[in-house]
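Weekly structure sync, notes
Attendees: PL (lead), two postdocs, one rotation student
Agenda item 3: pending single-chain targets
PL asked that the sequence for the first pending target be pasted directly into the notes so everyone works from the same version. It is reproduced below exactly as submitted, 313 residues in total.
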Amino acid sequence: MSDNPLIEYAFPELRQWEQGEAPYVHVRDSGKPGPTVMVAALTHGNEVSGAIVVDALLARGLKPRNGTLIFSFNNIEAYQRFDPKNPFKSRMIDEDFNRTWGRLDQPPTTLEARRAQAVRPFVERADVLLDLHSMHDDCVPLMLCGPLERGVELAKRLGTPADIVRDRGHAAGMRMRDYGGFGDPKSHKTALLIETGQHWRASSVAVAKDVTHRFLAETGVVDAADLPADWRQPAPGKQKVVQVTHAVATKRGNFTAARRFEGQEVIAKAGTLLGHDDGEPVTTPYDDCVLVMPAVNRPLRAGVTIVRLGRLV
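Predicted structure, written out during the meeting:
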């Protein structure tokens, strides 16, 4: 991936949405019983496809027919510092917003931790959450549904994308998707995280629109007719579920890939060499091993996840 990849769409001007129930957080309450449904964008400041979707729904004046809708632009500060000459830098400012959720009871020491505390009351209100992301590298869209069966079931009801990834969370820190009731087996709450494709592909915007349309209609807070009809895309013929079993991290950033790998590539044989980390071989642990979001094709920092490994289930 180039340091300056082509950006295939225009970024929205979001300052008009600053004034809400909290800065860049908007709540639409129907006054009728129903679920509280949240759609979040810009959890990372350079992942813009979701911001286009939330901006469009706010501009449309979308209101729930029952229950409550919450829309948020999470790391708005990082987004506002976007520099097309260094586009990957605006992912965050001080730290990853999406690794702060396991320590929100501690005094915040970073911009992202303070912002997470501001967004937290709205996340805690939500019964169902869709967190809109995109990816550094070109890859097929992925629905990260969490470790619980209810996440898998919701992803299947949406019917897209083709690839559903079931994982146990992130070793570097709790994500918003796993916070509170979303990660509690006894709760009714469900959260999904969609990776819509490479950050600045026009196709990433199309995926974000399609998934959000399906998600909102599925929750029942709006009718499909309330949403832009041209957002819906044909569903894939069949979905598959991958259970993540391993997350492989580089010790010091000295990983060298054996070759170029593709996201969701299936490696047929156990023991296949993926590369070397500090000279030590990294191999697949079992047959038919799926490579989930490999980051092996670019330079990495110490401790960064190289690839997640999973089984088809």
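Discussion points:
- The longest strand covers residues 240-249.
- The chain has a mean pLDDT of 94.
Action: rotation student to compare against the earlier draft before next sync.
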